[in-house]
Amino acid sequence: MNAIKKDIRSLSSDELTAFFIERGDKAFRAKQVYDWLWAKGVHSFEGMTNLSKSTRALLESSFEFKLLQVDTLQRSTDGTLKNGVKLHDGLIVESVLIPTEKRITACVSSQVGCSLNCAFCATARLKRMRNLEPQEIFDQVLTIHRQGMEFFQRPLTNIVFMGMGEPLLNYNNVLSAIEKITSPDGLGLSPKRITLSTVGLPKMIRKMADDGVKFNLAVSLHSARNEVRSQIMPINEVSPIEELVDSLQYWYKTTRRRITFEYVVWKGINDGPEDIQALVNVCKKVISKVNLIEYNAIGEERFQQADPKVLESYALALGAIGVVAKIRQSRGKDIDAACGQLANKQAM
After folding, report:
1. How much is the pLDDT for 11?
2. Which residues participate in catalysis according to the annotation?
């Protein structure tokens, strides 16, 4: 019976070095392999052309690549691309390429499904099946980088962890993937061009600050009133706004980096003057900017897009206290690629 081979990309640089030394080879072989894996994104041992045939054969007999593949590719009328990405075990996640005049942004997933049950999010209809491995997150990014070059003749410039899943519930794997993405030995993308979006887990936000991460933080807030937020985001029951605000103050004090609040406005849910004032009060306590987001329907009658004038009222009220607030137009709605719409429909 053949032993199960490890995915070679699950090994650290030190583990690769140890592998070669134990077999009487040179330690620098590990650096050569690491470069092929992460800087060049090669997905076969044959492609590692500066290694001898015997070294490639050794790797082939010892390891494997658990690869993802783009199972479906949809293109929006606005140029947005949505990938249905099949993982090595047949599960599917979605990732999105968002092109603008100056940027190519990758919106990537961190989990298959999600366990947080936000009422307005399509991903919440899927049960959480598993966390993504660092190499699976990395491959989503690499795929979108290559699509940027193929379709737009431009490289990837930004990454947002706003796809399927809650990144802070897959903390170690997400940080490992970001390390590969930002390392000079990997893709070399600046961490300042990466934003991690969370529903707001105070304990983990504090941990990120203590761990000295260099990327940006966004919080899906959607209401600054506990009674409203708890109805649409069950996590608020265990992590109410007061605790969230306290952790965000700690984040800013520790990192000196401003938080972005992601905020969708719905008719009859959070479109009243009391809702606007509650957000203003939070923003007085947290150094932040606000993205006011157009709602993207997922078939829930309870959630209806608010009057555009309400978004303007939010922006004016926030501007009056010196908070930058931008009204964001959604991209990729016609292919269910916009914010809150990602869900593998085959699994629903």
Report:
1. 94
2. 94, 339
